[in-house]
Design goal:
The protein is of the alpha/beta class and 396 residues long. Helices cover 43% and strands 21% of the residues. It contains 18 helices and 16 strands. The structure holds iron/sulfur cluster (SF4).
């Protein structure tokens, strides 16, 4: 029987206890032109070697997290569905031998909706994965081509049904809007098709390619900078986001974060640790972890990662200790992304900031209909979420 799931509001009531583990799997079949994740196209994936390395990294990091109860585990990528279920099972077993897992611990695996991945779904379910997150991106053939994706819309629908047949009663699908050549009507059709499938969770992100993407040599970012492609203008992207929001809402999916929608109790527990000031241990190539005020990031090269771990070295490219001001800013920016908002007074107090200095701005937000302030929490309205970054910046 499915475990009853707490709402995000109930979840945030236990902030101090929240702890998640992220495992990055960096290999993909090919490199998508818009991708700036730590991923590499590999003909031969060193599956067993990588599983061993991830557990060795876990051993090295264990003193920092010993005995903390894990509420959520997330296998992200990359394309973790290229990792055979036996290796996912081995990593999960290794985690549960070393750290206590909370009852009903959410275990998510990202999957590409290609047919080859779908055949593995029952193996993942048996291995202990209880949530699938599928990178559908779109059902539209042209949009998928522009994104360089190897699946088509019908494969995505089939993969969803295969996930259900494999016993997944918690399925999320990711979509992208704001792709070159895409129209608001196409985005509406994608959203309607996604909602009609009846998954528990949907994410919709605007395609963004910034200076960092350019530095990482993302092909689409380079084409954009040379003027070879153009993305839809900002006002059209905002319309797309509103269309998605309205379609999902009508289908009974609650917008609990700027880009994330869920049926009651099915918010992503793992991502909620990011958004509400929890801690997460990150393992694998290019993974970034956050433990208290410490932030660390691993090297982005798979070969370098394996070489460092196998010579008993931490595979980090850097770490820093955030100041209280930086942590305050992070909490406010992340908290305001959530429909449940942030207890601004409590966060100010926790990090030695003045709430009084921000009170007039909070009142102005409320009187302009950009936020509501109730039960001590400041929550942005739909209009406020549209200008989230500007509001967050003013509160810092
Ligand atoms: S499948 Fe995902 S991680 Fe892999 S290249 Fe494409 S966008 Fe990047």
């Amino acid at each position: 029987m499915a475990m009853p799931r707490a709402t995000l509001d109930a979840w945030t009531a236990h902030e101090a206890a929240r702890f998640a583990v992220y495992v990055h799997f960096p290999y993909c079949l090919s490199k998508c032109p818009y991708c700036d994740f730590a991923s590499t196209a590999a003909k031969q994936v060193p599956e067993a070697r990588y599983a061993k390395a991830v557990l060795a990294e876990l051993d090295a990091r264990l003193p920092d997290v010993a005995s903390r109860e894990v509420q959520a585990i997330f296998f992200g990528g990359g394309t973790p569905s290229l990792w055979a279920p036996v290796y996912v099972e081995a990593v999960l077993a290794g985690l549960s031998e070393r750290l206590p897992l909370a009852p009903g611990c959410e275990v998510t695996l990202e999957a590409n909706p290609g047919a080859a991945d779908a055949t593995r779904f029952s193996g993942y379910r048996a291995a202990g994965v209880n949530r699938l997150s599928m990178g559908v991106q779109s059902f539209d053939a042209l949009t998928l081509t522009k994104l360089g994706r190897g699946h088509d819309g019908s494969m995505a629908v089939k993969a969803f049904h295969t996930a259900r047949e494999a016993g997944f009663d918690n399925v999320s699908m990711d979509f992208i809007y704001g792709v070159q050549g895409q129209t608001v009507d196409q985005v509406r059709r994608d959203a309607e098709a996604a909602a009609a499938l009846g998954s528990e969770h949907l994410s919709a992100y605007a395609l963004t390619l910034d200076a960092e993407s350019l530095a990482e040599e993302v092909p689409l970012a380079k084409q954009l900078s040379r003027g070879e492609v153009t993305l839809p203008p900002d006002d059209v992207v905002v319309q797309m986001q509103r269309v998605v929001r309205d379609v999902y809402r009508q289908a009974g999916l609650h917008r609990y974060e700027v880009s994330n929608y869920a049926r009651a109790g099915f918010h992503s527990r793992h991502n909620s640790a990011y958004w509400t000031g929890g801690d997460w241990l990150a393992l694998g190539v290019g993974a970034s972890g956050s433990l208290g005020s410490t932030r660390y990031a691993n090297v982005r090269s798979a070969e370098k990662y394996l070489a460092l771990v196998e010579s008993n070295q931490l595979p980090e490219k850097g770490r820093e200790a955030l100041s209280d001001v930086e942590r305050f800013e992070e909490r406010v920016a992340m908290g305001l992304r959530l429909a449940s908002g942030v207890d601004l007074e409590a966060v100010c107090e926790a990090f030695g900031q003045s709430y009084a200095a921000r009170k007039a701005f909070v009142e102005a937000l409320v009187s302009e209909g950009l936020a509501v302030h109730d039960g001590g929490r400041l929550r942005l309205t739909d209009e406020g979420l549209d200008v989230h970054s500007a509001i967050a910046a003013r509160l810092m």
